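Notes continue from the previous slide.

Worked example: a multi-chain complex. Inputs as given:
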Amino acid sequence: MSKPKKQKYKLKISSITENLEIIREFINKIARKAGFSDEGADQIELAVDEACTNVIKHAYHFDSKRMLDISVLVDKEKIEIIVTDKGSGFDPDQLVVPDIPKYAHEAKVGGLGIHLMKSLMDEVSYSFNPGRRNSVLLVKYYNRKSA
Amino acid sequence: MSGFEITRKDDEKICVLHLTGFLDAHTVPKFEEAIQNLIREKKYCITVNMRDLDYISSAGLGVFMGFIEEVRENGGDIKLSNLSQKVYRVFDLLGFPTLFEIFNDESEARSKFNQHD
C-alpha cells in the first residue's frame, strides 16, 4: 500500500476518562489508514491512551471542564501525535519506574504508563510551561520496531 | 462492544473473575472493587480469566500490582488465564510474566491452585 502524503487530524475533547474510548478509536482508525499493521495501530492507541490518562489525572486532576487537545500528523515516514494541556504539568521523571519487582513490593499504582509509552513508541518527549501549555510528543516510524 | 463487565464464579477455594471489554482508567475502579471485595471476604486464590478482554492499559495492570503482595502474604495468588495476544503483549512489555503465572486456560490455573492442597 502506498503511504499517504501529509495528513493532519485534530481532536478537542473533554478531559474525562469516559472519553478515552473515543480517543482510542480516533487514533486507531488514523494509524490503520496510515498503513500501520494491526499490532502497530494497537501500540499507538495504547501509548496515546496513556498520555491522555496522565493529563486527565496529573495535569487536570479529573476536572471535567478542562479540554484535551490531540493533534496527529501523518507523513511518509511516521505518525506524530501531540497531546497538549494547559494544566499544572507534572514531572514525568518522577513517574518512571524501571524496577518492576520493587514496584510491586511498594504497591504503587502510577507511572507504568510512561514506561509503556517509551516501549511502544520510537520517540517520547515532553515540553513544559505549567499553566500555559504542556505537551507530550509521541512518534512512531513505519520502519522501526519499537516494542 | 463497549464498556467493561466482570462476572464472578466461586467454588470452595478458588474465585474466578471473568473480564469482558475494555479495562482502562475509566473502567478500572470496577475491577479494583471486585478484587477488594475478594480480599475482604478472605478469598485469596484468585484467577482472572481474560478471554473476553479486548483491551488493557496500565491502569488495569496497576491493580494487579497493587494487590498481589497482600494476596500472597495471605497464602494466595492472582493467576491469569486466557489472555489474547494483544493483551498478553502489554503484560509482557512490563515484565509481568516473571511476576505472575499466566495460563492458556482457566482450568490450568485452577489445577495449579489445587496442587497446593
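Summary box: Chain B touches chain A through 27 residues (CB under 8 Å). Strands of chain B lie at 4-10, 14-23, 45-56, 77-81, 102-103.
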